Amino acid sequence: MAIMMPASDQAVLARRAEIIAALRAIVPGEGVIDSAAEMRAYESDGLTAYRQPPMVVVLPDTTEQVSLVLKYCAAQGIKVVPRGSGTSLSGGALPLEDGVLLGLGKFKRIREIDFDNRVVVTEPGVTNLAISQAVVHAGFYYAPDPSSQIACSIGGNVAENSGGVHCLKYGMTTNNVLGCEIVLMSGEILRIGGKGCENSGYDLMGVITGSEGLLGVITEITVRILQKPETARALMVGFAEVEAAGECVARIIGAGIIPGGMEMMDKPAIHAAEAFVHAGYPLDVDALLIIELDGPSVEVDELITRVETIANACGSTSCQISTSEAERNLFWAGRKAAFPAVGRISPDYLCMDGTIPRGALPKALARIRELGEKYQLGCANVFHAGDGNLHPLILYDANKPGEIERAEAFGADILRACVEFGGVLTGEHGVGIEKRDLMGDMFSEIDLNQQQRLKCAFDAQGLLNPGKVFPTLHRCAELGRMHVHAGKVAFPDIPRF
């Protein structure tokens, strides 16, 4: 599939050999990849419908090398695309023909585990799951847990503000990151935040988290770790109607109960996951809720009783409660494997990511059904139901003419519906290129220009990950210029600097 990206700089491409030689001087050995065959592994991320080989791949292994690479590229006017594990589902790490792909895969050390302050200081290439594995012996874990946690890197999690099944109670990545080391396009190395829970001044960590590689390259991250709860049990509740499951979600949250995680799957997703994992999911239901409750044993027992009562009032047809840690993990195994499981029932699928108010869940599900009929394509739905984060998986066959275009139109209409219902275009996958051209459905031109002004403060030349997030690129000078009408500036009495 073709997608509009920034025009390639032919002057840069003409100097490719010279640029590669300069980069090899900065990152020696096997740190620079320039052959077409070897760069094929980097031509896309998890959104494989879009592919573009980079001009060159650079794999530094120190912050100093990252700084020197960025400083050189800034001086030469060369675009740079940062990349973690490449699991992004929004095209955020799609390379550019005239750009350097800066891979952080060699940054895979945990630098410090500080149980006294309950933090881990890690490099960005460490996988999400590896952080929990490094502290599990002391009864700790890292809360955000994307489905791809076995493979996705913590640096990528920060870039996309990733979520996961347990983010309902314990927060997204932004709620669990305390500090970072970031290298600006100029090569300047900044340290933002740290081990302390509070920092004075502007919330720069909030700006960096979810910035999708547009502001800088993260080379170190300090994350909060939590003690594992005394007890965690999961309920698997089936419903004859998807809308009834959505109503159950709203009532549980409305009752003041905040589960550790609350996920929903519809019938196609249930059948695919069960055939893949054999988790014991009921196959005679149209919707399945997995609800995890954690805390002291007495509290968990009480909450289970209350949730059962709410589910029954919403018309649940089945309810199974985990009786062991192994059974709880099995309940979750099917949900965690839902994305690869759906890959067994369809040659291709698009994994969408939008967020709505919880109360709009039944309405959103009905709209997705209508759109499926309109575009004549199947859809398996997997939701972070507790926080309204939808993941419709649109099923199509790329070998059939026109199906990918219909799938993309289907997905765009789902995201427009999310905005219509009071939600947003993304919950955790980011904007990238997938949702870039829909940003105007959610933001006005003034809003988008203000966001680009923030980027200009970090990257005045616009060299970091251009073509992502913003549907219309502007030069920083254009965004800052003053409007003059009939030879007069507006508000002439205001002091100007």
TrEMBL record:
Alphabetical list of InterPro entries matching this protein: FAD-bd_oxidored_4_C, FAD-bd_PCMH, FAD-bd_PCMH-like_sf, FAD-bd_PCMH_sub2, FAD-linked_Oxase-like_C, FAD-linked_OxidoTrans_Type4, Oxid_FAD_bind_N, Vanillyl_alc_oxidase_C-sub2
SUPFAM superfamilies: FAD-binding/transporter-associated domain-like (SSF56176), FAD-linked oxidases, C-terminal domain (SSF55103)
Keyword Chaperone: no
Gene Ontology molecular function: FAD binding; oxidoreductase activity
Domain of life of the organism encoding this protein: Bacteria
Domain FAD-binding PCMH-type as annotated: residue spans: 50-228
Keywords: FAD, Flavoprotein, Oxidoreductase
Obligatory cofactor(s): FAD
PROSITE patterns xrefs: FAD_PCMH (PS51387)
Pfam families the UniProt entry points to: FAD-oxidase_C, FAD_binding_4
Protein name: FAD-binding protein
UniProt organism field: Bradyrhizobium commune
